[in-house]
Write the structure tokens for this entry.
Amino acid sequence: MRGLVLLATIMAMSMEAQVRIEKTAWSGWPNCYRISNGETELIVTSDIGPRVMFYGFRGGQNFFWVQKETAGRSGEPEWVARGGHRVWVAPEDRRYTYPPDNSPVQIEIRGGALIATQPVEKETHIQKQLEIRLADRGTDVTIIHRLFNRGVMPLEFAPWALTMMAPGGHGVSGFPPRGTHEENLAPTNPLVMWAYTDLGDPRWTWLKKYFVLRQDPANPAPMKIGHFNPKTFGAYFLNGELFLKRYDADPSKTYPDFGCSYETFTNADFLEIETLGPVTRVAPGAAVEHVERWSLHRNARPAAWNDAELDRILGPLLASK
């Protein structure tokens, strides 16, 4: 009988393929949702969050880091690193950025999309929401991050989307188009440092068009940098496969952290790929949205970490819509 079925399955059908959303247990959390189209899978748990905890090819590796010590747990009084993909508030502030996301979230299935909504944070009066839309075929995912102001006063902040990548890979981002001294006298973008940034750290590779940050489980030192690119992207190369996320930034608007649309951070556990929206004044009852586009790609192993090899792999992907 249907009332005895443990997995609640909701299908969004197309003429050629389908997206299936199933309720299931995963990594110790009993109330998770698997989103799949037969080629690609994502897992969102409703026990904490909102967070996407898994993204990968069907039957393949999880591109996201999951903190083993806290997997399956919930209800902690303090913020927990946990892993996966989340949405935060920028600029970073102990009060507004770090309220715990350790309680259950509401799940809604609408038109083939999964929407995960957090209870209103008592510390900030902000309510966080992720809407996840997987394409009927392939690996393309659209992630809509929403931050609602549920208080009685206007708030000013920027949406901040952070993806915690599994260890052992290389994170890559790129600068705006390069040129020559004769033709381009004006600066093109900021490169932003933190007090602990060390440009001489061996995990960095600095190129003309790209920069690379290697995740090293043997190096515990935190490392971070930020920059701005109207065509913001972050790529992560892991075991011959590639995670890519993209976001269109608006140069006419003000971005946090001296103008960053992209930031990356690493330590011994994970590497984080982060995009940031513009600083926005959000009225009571209003919301701000921030949209990322994700994709996965096979056979993505650079022969060397140089511009030519990264152009060979990333160039066609970045040129596509």
In short: The helical segments are 94-97, 256-259, 307-319.
